[in-house]
Amino acid sequence: MTKEQEVRLALPGKGTLEASTLSFLAECGMKVNRSNPRQYLARIASMPGLEVVFQRAADIPMLVLNGDATLGITGYDILAEHLGYSDDEIVDGDNGEDIIVLERNLDYGACRLVVAVPETWIDVSTCADLWHLAGYYATQKGRGLRIATKYPILTGQFLRRHGITHCKIVSPHGALEAAPLTDTADLIVDLTETGTTLRENHLKLLDDGIVLRSQACLIANAQLLNHNKQALRIASMMLELIDARMQARNRSLLTAHLQVEGSDGIQRICQQLKSRIPGFEFRVASSDGRGSAVSEKADPNGCTISGVVRVGNTSSELLEAVAILRSMGAFHIDVTPLTYRFERESVRVRSLHERLKRLH
Question: What is the DSSP letter of 287?
Answer without folding.
Answer: T
